[in-house]
Amino acid sequence: MALTNPNVLVRMPVADDLWLITYDQWAPKHTVSDPVLSYGVAAALVAELVLGRCAVVNHAGHTPGLTVKGAEFEPLDPVLKDLLHLITNDGWRPVKEWIRYAARNAVHDVAGRLCVRELLLPVEVGTLRKRIAWQAASPKASTAIDYRPGRVAAMLGADQHRAFAVHGIEDVALVALCDALGLRHRLLVDGVRESHTYIDQVQLRLAHERPDVFVVVQALGEMAGTSR
Q1: pLDDT tens, position by position, 70-125
Q2: pLDDT (mean) for 139-153
Q3: What residues form DSSP beta bridges with 120?
């Protein structure tokens, strides 16, 4: 896909990017099932906390968990603040439990962040049973949304022989989370057979540089695999 829109290069929080990449035309049809989509967006929110060193992954025995003990920063984003507040009050819990908990509202909460960015608008759909869906806020927003998967493919294609070396760890985490959701096919670069290898290298880089974030990706992969 040729990139013709500069909005595609704008970095957004990991969960925002993942929401737009995993959603198929934003509503109501998804590229993955509702539970898997919810787990993916929730895991991305947890990953944002860990990436920002607002929460810490540690182990009790063989089970990785999440705590705020030893965290260096507090998030400014209200969605992350609410999630962090729960972690603070509840103490240590396994990473998977926090993903399940965050999944209750993650899709709606992140859509709300995208509304603040003026990319989405909530709309009521249905006749008897009303529900909230989402639409692009403007033609410009629609174009920007359309190109989010292309942005990821372009990143993978641009640095094929450097294993994503020049991109930030947030982009690496985004690709790893999408791959854990089973969406590798949406990340592959057209005509580049080695794309699978590059995505594997992205996973290895994340495991090496941020093993704490990689724990979140692994948890998502296990949860998504049992929910498809």
Answers
A1: 889 988 899 999 998 888 887 788 999 999 999 999 988 999 999 988 888 887 77
A2: 72
A3: 136
Q: Is 190 helix (H, G, I), strand (E, B) or coil?
A: coil
Question: What does the block give as tokens for 120?
Answer: 């989405």
Do 188 and 196 meet the contact criterion of CB atoms below 8 Å apart?
yes
Q: Which two tokens stand for residue 101?
A: 């908990």
Distance, CA of 138 to CA of 118 (rounded, Å)? 8
Check residue 6 and report its DSSP letter. Answer: G
Structurally, what CATH architecture does the domain formed by 6-146+210-221 represent?
Orthogonal Bundle (1.10)
Which token pair is 161? 């022989």
Q: Which of 28-32, 88-92, 219-223 has the lowest mean pLDDT?
A: 28-32
For the chain, which residues make up each domain, given as ranges? Answer: 6-146+210-221
> Quick check: 41 and 107 in contact, CB under 8 A?
yes
SS3 assignment, position 188:
coil
